Structures are given as structure tokens and as C-alpha cells.
Amino acid sequence: MQSGHSTDLGEVLTLWSTLPFAGMLLSIALFPLFAPRFWHHHFGKISAFWALVVSVPFLYLYRGQALYEFLHIVLADYVPFVIILTALYTVSGNILLRGTLVGTPAVNTGMLLIGTVLASWMGTTGASMLLIRPFLRANSHRKNRTFMVVFFIFLVSNVGGSLTPLGDPPLFLGFLRGVPFFWTFKLFWQMLCVVAVLLTLYFIMDSYFYRREDGTPATGTGENVPLSIDGAHNFIFLAGIIGAVFMSGVVHLGEVTVLGIHRPVQDLLRDGILILMALLSLATTRREIREDNEFTWFPMQEVAILFIGIFLTMMPCLKILQAGEKGHLAVLIRTVQEPYHYFWVTGVLSSFLDNAPTYLTFLSSLLGKFYAGTEAREAVGMVINGNSIYLKAISAGAVFFGANTYIGNAPNFMVRSIAEETGTPMPSFFGYMIKYSIPILVPCFLMITLLFYL
Amino acid sequence: MPVERILFPTKFRELSFNSLEQLFVLKQAGLKEIILCHVISRESVGFVPFGGYMKDEEERLREEATVRFEDWRTSIAEKGMDSKIVIRVGEPVPQILHAAEDEKADMIVVGKKKKALELPFAGSNTLEIASRSSVPVLVSKYMVHYEIEGEQHERVNERIFERPMLVTDWSEPSLRAVDFLKSLHPVIEEALVFHDIDVEKVHKKHTQDLAGLKKVTIEKLGAVCDELKGEGAACETHLGAGDVLSEILRVSRDRQASMIIVGTTGKGRLSEFIHGSVSHEVVKASELPCLLVP
């Protein structure tokens, strides 16, 4: 199979072909909101439905070329995506922070800061899973806990993940498309601004509530367990994951053909190492640690099931965008012109749609805008050299704005789920936006726009 | 070690109550309270993809379980015992083990209440609880369909404490199993005490002759029986030779045992994988309820 006509496909596809992608994303956005029980039991069927809606007519109409494109997106994007998320989730699920922490404003701010730093290295999901239970335990004596969890979602589950491809799924997809491992460090100053504002605001709010609650002491109410980390050896496996991903970005070992798709050997090696790290982590860590972490495979199953639908339905949209002004989404490419356009459009859509496909969509539109018809990896390199501010805008928009809603990024709903389960009331979908993300995050993002994109 | 508090986890499957009823007789042996436990799986209420936690669904499932338990509690109260409802959310195995610990249960009752022909006598969760529990675990098998040498059978296990068969290898757990069996004496009609001699191993070692070993073993079995008789329960001894699992099954069927009691070392997975676990093999292969004593 050859991909020689891939650009042609992007030029001939009509907007109708993007409807299954829209349907898939809207399903993720709306079903949990309006029919959670139905969605919970049938999300796999819904994902399969949209995948079939796109793949059957495509395979019928474009046969070999469509098959090539579907296989390419599955082997080059979906499989590595699921492998990295599973590896990070597994290794972080085998690390357990024990001990008695008393949730004072200083301790809480410190925990949020640590989580923010860890998020770029163990993934927003991994850092969230590692810290949310200790964070909630430390504050179980506090009356007002809702805002704490919201800031946890802002910082640990989203903004903190902006520095490396391990941090947040969109950045890993960018890495797979040729963005260098350390390039995302260029978002450091933007991240620092947002983190500084949010942590300061958090500290002020927490201090205010702490005083109003008379600084209710938690000490002396139970057994004082010293702080410790169980399963600390898993940091070795985490280092192995970081090393493997970094290696795949700098080493070139040639290519092999898998099901007609050319795959770089170093990428396959990376995926093999990631699987090995996850297996070693499982084999060398006591089951009780996972149990105390309430570790379950269910969230990863969800990701695997939902994202096969997302990736397959996304293919036509990506092809059209990569065709640039020759494609049927030329109007979008012409309208979104300035870096701050990219920041806000990517961001707002990332708030309501999953940020990984949104990032890939706008990365493709960027490639189509500047280097239509050029092979994706090569075009990414050209963007980095000549128009990197656009890529920064897309990357920052996708990662930062994921915090705007519960559905913007996968760990958001996991954190919400755990908080609610352990008795912390959380706002509704719109309550979260109206009370927290719009008044707190949107001004932060305006500040970023002024400082970095105007 | 009298059994005063039993943890009875249930998924409310068919025949669960019938299985519970088999425990009522233990009041004569000192049973005071039955803790009715239901674990709501986290997957059924939490981690709704991109949604969150379905608190309403948890409340609904809790209420459903409570209503079902209330009926059972009435029956328990009629028998003059106390009961308590424990409903947890999470993974079944650790939640059941934690519940047993928190409630200071003396025994956990698990297992399928109705076994279809194609299913094993015990599932992986049951075996995991059995291998990790620090208190005895009764794997109840109320109604079983099974096959022996191509012939299909159906059996309802009632009056399970009347003819218990104690399998002993003289290990620490099996000696604890003797103590446990003694605590059940008021409900035992006749106990069977069994030991298997691995003839092949004895011949290989050449350290003692088979006849001598047999004599010593019979004496030890007799001593266990005497202890049980001292508590007022009738007792008979049985010696097996050869493959231990086949012998346990054969004797339990021949002598119409009502349950099998066996000590378990609670080996880790690796050890179990390499050496196997007789107690687990018995649970998986026998149609009788099995009581594993750690």
C-alpha cells in the first residue's frame, strides 16, 4: 500500500466526511451530561457506531487508499497513544503516598505545586491519580473542599502537563508527528505565569477559608502515620518510560513495514520498552499497593475504546485540513490567522471536546496553512523553524484550556469521580464553569494572550 | 476459636438466601451475629467516561441492597441472632477482606450458590479471598451441577456441618483446622478425619517403611478423633494412599461427607504456581462446601 495520493484524498473529501468525527466528539460531550447511565453502559457501542459510520463508506469508496489511511492512523497514532497512557497509568498506580498530612494552606499549596511539577513527567493522569487521594485525606477535616479539588484539576490534571510529551496526550501526539521532546519546554514561561497566578489565588482562598473554619486541627484525632512512599522503585520504571520516549525522538534505526505501513524501528522499540516497564511495574509491586490506590483497569479500557472511535473518525478531518486551502475546510484555515486565534480556537474547542484530537486537528490545519502537501513530519519541522509561535499557541491552548470543563481532559472526570466518591461535593458541569473556570481561568488565559501572543 | 461473627458477602444471586440459611444452625455452636455484606463494584458507579461519579446510582444500589437485606435480617432475628448490614464500593476482594477485618469476623462465607455444569466450583475471586484471608473461609456451594466419569449429577448441599471431613497433613494450618472443627462440635453428627500417604514419595526416601508410617499415622488420626470425641462429636478416621486430591474426593464421596475442612498456608501466587495448592485444588474439584482454615 502506498500513501502517495494522501493529499489528493484531503482535496476531494467533502465536509460530510467530518460528521462522524463531530458525532463522536459530541457524544463524548453530551451523553455524560444528559444520559450518564446510558452512556456508561453503551459508550463502547456508540464509539463502534461512529467508527463504522466512517470506515464502511470510506473503505467502499476509496478501498486501498482508505485502508492505508486507517491502518496508518491506528498503527502510528492510536496504538502508541494507548501504550504510553497505559504505561504511565500503570506505573503511577503502583506508587502510593502514605502518611498523615494536615491540610493547611501551606501544605495544600505545596502538594499542588509538587503535583504540577510531576504532571509533566508522569502525565497529568498519573500525577492526579498519585496525589488526589492523599490530598483529599489531608483535607478530610476541612469544611470547604470543593475549591481545592477544582484547583487540583486546574493545576495537576491540566496546566502542569504542558512541559513534555509525557505530560498531556495532545503533546504526545505532537511528538509522534515530529515535535522534538524538549521543544515543549518553550511553554515554560507561559506555564509559570498561569501556575503562579493560580497557586497564589489558591493560597489566598485556602487561607481565607482556613481562618473561617477556625483552622480546625486534624492532629491528635487519629493515628499519626509518618509520610512514606510505597512502591518507590517504580520511579525507576518511570525513568525508563521517559528515557524510551526521549530515545525514540533522537535515535534513528531505520524503518520496518507493518501491515503495509512504514514504522520507524525506534518507535516500535519505544513501545516495546513502555510495555516492558508497565509489566515490570506490575510484577514487582505488591498487589496491596494497587488496592490501596483503588487501581482499576477500567479507565484505561475506556480510553482504548473511546479513542479508537476518535482516531478513526478523525482521519477525514485531518486529511482535509492537511490539504490546506485546497481542502473543503479552507474557510477555517483562512479565518484562523493569528497566533492568538489558534490559542483561543484550539483552547475553546479543547474545553468541550477532548484536547488530544483537537490539538491534532489544529496542528493539521497549521501544516495545511503553511506547508500544504508537504509530508507531515517534515512540515512540523518547518513550522518549528519558521512559525513556532503558532505551534506554541496550539500546544498551550490544548493543554491549558483542558481545565475549563470536566470533559476537557480525561483526568478531570477521574478526579471528580474520586472526590465525589469520598464525600467532597463537586459542582455540576455548568456550575464548575460558571463558579470556577470562567472567572478564574479565562482571565489567566487573557493574560497569557497579552503577554505572549499579541 | 468459636465462630461468633460471620461475614456473608453476597451479590444477591439465586439461592443466596438458601445458602445463608445453612449457617443458622451455627447458633448452637456460639454464632451471635451475621454481617451481611454487599460490594458495589466501582465500575458500576464511578469513572463514567468523561462524566464522573454517579452518586445517585450508588444511592439507588445501596437502597436496593438494604431493602433486600432487611428481609434476611428478619429471618436471622427470628433465629435469635443479631445482624448488621455493610455496603461498600470498590473492588470485591479487598473490600470483603477489609470488611472482615473491620467487623472482626471469625469466618467469611463466599462462593457460588448455584453452579452450572460448565462452570468451575470456585471462581478466581473466591480463591483469592481464600488465599488471602486471615480468618477461615467457607466456600459454600448450595446447588451444584457436575459430572463424574461422564455422568451428570445435581446436588443440594444442606446440613453441611453434620458430617465434615477434616483433611490433615499435620501442618500448622491443619492443626488449627482441628481446633476450628472442635468449636463446631455442637452441630456435628460425625466427623471424618483423613490423611493421605504419598506412597511413591515414601518409597523414594527409604527412610522409613510404609507399614511403620501407616501405624504412626493411624495413631495420630486416632488422637485427633479422640479430641473431637472429647468434645462430644462422633468421629471416624480414614487413611488415603496415592494422589491426594483424588483420595480426598474419593473418600468424601464414599463416606458421604457433608463438607471438607482443610488447612491452607495462604501461599503467594508464585509459590502456588510452582508448587500448587492442595486446598485450592480441593475447592475447585469437590462438589462439597469447603472450609479453608489459615
What are the salient characteristics of this protein?
heterodimer; A: 454 residues; mainly alpha; disordered N terminus; B: alpha/beta; Rossmann fold; ten-stranded mixed sheet
Quick overview:
The complex is a heterodimer of chains A (454) and B (294). Chain A is mainly α and 454 residues long.
Describe the structure.
The complex is a heterodimer of chains A (454) and B (294). Chain A has 18 helices and 4 strands. Chain A has 454 residues and is mostly helical. Chain A has one domain. In chain A, the strands form 2 sheets. Chain A has a two-stranded antiparallel ribbon. In chain A, α5 runs antiparallel to α7, α11 runs parallel beside α14 and α14 runs antiparallel to α16. The radius of gyration of chain A is 22 Å and the shape is globular. Chain A starts with 5 loop residues before the first helix and ends with a helix. Chain B is of the alpha/beta class. Chain B folds into 2 domains: 151 residues, HUPs (Rossmann fold); 130 residues, Rossmann fold, CATH 3.40.50.620. Chain B is built from 11 helices and 13 strands. In chain B, α4 packs parallel to α5 and α9 crosses α11. The longest helix of chain B is centred in the N-terminal third of the chain and has 24 residues. The radius of gyration of chain B is 20 Å and the shape is globular. About 3% of the residues of chain B have low confidence. At the A-B interface, α2, α3, α11 and α17 of A face α2 and α3 of B.
